[in-house]
Amino acid sequence: MPARGTASVRAVYGLDILVRFIAVAADPDKYGNSWQYNSRSDRHSQIGCWGVAFDLLATSALLRQHAESGKVVLGVNHTMNDFSTSRKRALDLVVARPAGPVPARGPSLRSIVTKKNIPLTDSERSLLLSLPDIPVAPVGAVLIALEAKAAMTAHVKALPRLYDELNSSHLCVHGASNQALAIGFVQVNSATHFASSVTNGYPLVDYPIRVTEHRQPYDTERVLKKVAELPRRSSVNGVGFDGIGISVLDFANQGGPVNLVTDPPAPQPGDPFHYDSMIVRMANEYDSRFAAI
């Protein structure tokens, strides 16, 4: 595999934040095992989407204006209802018009950092404090809907479900509001071996750990090709995601380092699936689509 490592300078910060967060194991599960990634937990998807919201707020001048004037709120694990089919789906994070008066004090984009123990650098924290905060409050009309999915192990076996869950996400979002920006964020592991929390469903202090071997870069490339098959749209009249960002990570889920893969097969700068490209595109789409609210 090509060399791996974190980028030294980034215009956006979400991927670096996600890497640092996953590097720290979560609280022990029911077997007493602490995992960096647990497929039965949504901590990786929540923090990934928090990073996207942070980067969009820093990139979109209009979103900052809307946040400053109290025109937008956040919804965490918000359930959207497809008007055309009555389909329901819980989205990791949404940016929306408020459903009513917003409490003066309550959870917000900033307070999630403390609640979730998100590790920010001094410069990231300074940037966050310089931006207008967005409260977490009851959701009205959704403007941005974020869905994060991961393919960390058993890549090929997981492809049908990964595709179906992502595809149903944008269908539900646009069934509820054709104007909303539907964003998919896919996290792919390129490590050659991985310890799954599901495979190791027992106390590791009593039994040896089980490790799944991966065929790399083949497994990663298969996931990237499948994600590329997801429909995407360039106008409100189309069908598909408005933006898709992909992060390729390298870690064995055994307490060691988590590296952000920046060389191929990870999407390269200028690629529509490159995280930075997705942020810039979605910020521009927000600025043009919601200027009138």
Number of helices: 8
Low-confidence stretches: 1-9
Q: Please, how many domains?
A: 1
Q: Which oligomerization state do the chains in this entry correspond to? A: single chain
Class derived from helix and strand content? alpha/beta
Q: Strand order, main sheet: write it out.
A: 1-2-3-4-7-8
* Distance between the amino and carboxyl termini: 47 Å
How would the global form be characterised? globular
H/E element sequence: HHHEEHHEHEEEHEEH
Percent strand equals 15-25%
Q: Average pLDDT, to the nearest integer?
A: 94
Tell me how many strands there are.
8
Q: What percent of residues adopt helix (DSSP H or I)? A: 25-40%
Radius of gyration: 19 Å
Give a brief outline of the structure.
By secondary structure, the chain is α/β, with parallel strands linked by helices. It has helices at 14-23, 43-59, 61-68, 109-115, 122-130, 155-176, 218-228, 275-289, and strands spanning 73-81, 88-98, 139-151, 181-189, 193-194, 212-213, 243-250, 259-260.
Describe the structure.
The chain has 293 residues and is α/β, with parallel strands linked by helices. It has one domain (14-289). It has eight helices and eight strands; from the N terminus they run αααββααβαβββαββα. Strands 1-2-3-4-7-8 form a six-stranded mixed sheet, with helices on both faces. Strands 5-6 form a two-stranded antiparallel sheet. Helix 6 (155-176) links the parallel strand 3 (139-151) and strand 4 (181-189). It is globular.
